[in-house]
Amino acid sequence: MENITFAFPQSHTYGPAYFDFLALRKRFFVDTLGWDIPHDARYEMDQYDNPTAYYSLVLKDGSVVGGARAQPTTAAWGDHTYMLRDALRGKLSSIPPEVMGADIVDSKVWECTRLVIDDSVATHADRSTCLRLIVQGLIDTAAGKGAEQLISLSPLALMRALRQLGFGAQRLGSPYLNDGDGRRYAVLTMPTPPAGRVAPTTTHRLLQPEVVHAPAV
Question: Do 76 and 52 contact (CB within 8 A), yes or no?
Fold first, then answer.
């Protein structure tokens, strides 16, 4: 497996990889979880896929098998900023505003969303490797732009998976139950070590990571 990272304006650089990621998102978030989010028959794409976004994808034998999106908390595109801030402002009915304890607008803090790993990555060892590559790509991208912290609205199980990989994930605030998919979510935070610093691997059994945030509408 290999990791690629790019900004939205450079999404054409890796051929069909970007749209393969959108297709993977559609299969998981829409077809599997049943989220009511913007999509067509093949792709899922929302208001945060805009020129302020960055992506960390994992390829296996040339196919996209995982990925995630990141944006600085200073991002703004039309009427939208970043997902958690829009939730705080009451713009996203599926996310309770109180999940975000503070209005963060800081170039040193980036938000991560839409983390997904394909079902074809079947073993715990391979899913561990895929998750590590995705997250390390997010860290390197954000740290390279001066970020010191990542935040995300994530399933609680993801915090444990990240810790097992050596990432310093912590929970902020209280979790809540998403009625749409029956999962418990909370805002997670994690420091960004210097770009290029790979987190240690683990020999522990890794929980299968799921999604990194609740649906936005």
Answer: yes
Q: Are 192 and 184 in contact (CB under 8 A)?
A: no
- State the Cα–Cα distance between residues 36 and 34, nearest whole angstrom: 6
Alpha helix ranges (H) inside the chain: 17-25, 83-88, 124-144, 156-164
Supply the pTM of this predicted model: 0.87
**φ/ψ of residue 164, rounded to 5:** -65, -25
* Calpha distance 167→21 (Å, rounded): 24
Tens-digit pLDDT profile for residues 156-190 = 999 999 999 999 999 988 898 888 788 889 999 99
The phi, psi pair for 149, rounded to 5°, reads -150, 140
Q: Do 184 and 157 touch, CB atoms closer than 8 A?
A: no
| CATH architecture for segment(s) 2-191 | 3-Layer(aba) Sandwich (3.40)
Give the 3-state DSSP-derived string for 58-80, with helices as H, strands as E and coil as C.
Answer: EEECCEEEEEEEEEECCCCECCE
